[in-house]
Amino acid sequence: MDAVFGQPETTCSASTVKLTHTIIPLDTLTSSIPYGAMIGSHVTPIDHAYLGLKSLELTDAARQNAPFVPVTSPAAGTVIEVSTLRAEGTTTVYRVVINHGCGVYTVYMVLDRLQAGVRRGTKLAAGQQFGSQRDHPLDFNVFSGGTWLTGFANPLSYAYGEAWKPYTADPTPFFTRELAAAYEKVMQRTQAPRWWKVDFDVRGAASGSWFLAGTAGYSGIPIASVKPNEWMQLGGIPGKNTYAYGHLALAPHWTTPSTWIASMGWFADEAGDADVQGLGQFAISLAGGLPTPDEVTVADGTVVYPLHSMETLTADGDPYQMDPTTTNSPFPVGYQAVPGPSKQGTMAVRVNADGSLTVEVIANPSGTFSGFTSAARTYTR
Fold it and tell me: What's phi and psi for 154, nearest 5 deg?
C-alpha cells in the first residue's frame, strides 16, 4: 500500500491505527452513499463513500447563506497530496490524501475549501481542520495495507489508474465504537455491512467488473498503444469521451441487494455515453425466473436481460419524489431501487470457457435479441 502512494514502506500493523475524531461534525451529517455505488461514468463499483451534509437538504438558494462546516483529520497524519478537481464544470474543489502510518491512508475528494497553509508535507493532529464543506457530499475512503480484497478476479487490471483499489477498507474497524455507530447510522444501506463493498467478481460467472478486450484494464488505454517500459497515466483517450467507455459491471445495487444493476460505459455510443443521463446504469429485470449474474456460468449459454430504468422508493415502498429545488440532496436512508416500468434496452451475456464475457447490447426499448451479431463485444477481467 505504501508503494502505491509513493511512501516509505512501514512494518507496523494497520490495525494499530485508530480514527478517533469525526471527519465532519456529527450533527451536520445526513444520508450518505456507501461504497459500491455505480453512477454515471463511475461504471464499476465506486471505492469511496459520499458523506452527506444537512446543508445539501436546503434549497440551492438557502444553502448559499448556510455556513461551511469544518473537515478534520480523523487521526494524526501527514498530507501527502493536495490536488485540484473540477465540479459543475467551473468550480474548483480539492483532493487531499493523508498518510496515517502503518499503511493506512484516508482520501477526501470534492473538498469545497482547503484550509490556508495546508499543502503536501503538512502534519495534522487528530481533529485538526484541513478544509471546509457545504456545497457537495464529501468523498471519503480508507485504504489499508492490511486489506487485500479477494473479490477481484484480476487485480492487475487496476495497476494503471487505480492501483489502490484492492486495498479499499471498510472504515468501521478503524473508527472508535461511537464514531463507527454514528457513521453507520447515516449510511443509505441498512443491511450489514453498512459501508458495503466494491469487489463482486465471481470467477466463472458473469457478475462483477469487466473491461473491454484489448484495453489495459481500468485505464481504458488500448493495449496496442502501450509502449514497453512506459508508465501509463489515466486520462483522456483519443476518440473516446471517457476512459470508462470500456468498463462494464454487473453488480447488486448498493442499497437494494435484490436489484441487480447493469452499469456500462458504452450503451449506444462506443466512444462512451455513461455520463448521458439515463444511459450509464440500468436495473436488470429478472422477471420470468432469469438467473442473477452471479449464477450465470458457461453452462447457462446465452442469457438475455431486459434493461429498465430505475424506480426509487422510500424505505416503506412508496414512490420517492426528489425536491426539484435542491441540486445535491441525497436519497433518504433505506431507500429502495427497483426496475421501473420503462424498458430501455436489452443485454445478452454469455460466459465463455476462457473466462471472458461476450455481450451484445440492443439500445432500443423495442429491440429483441435473436443471436449474437457483429455488434457483440468481448470483455475480460
Answer: -145, 85
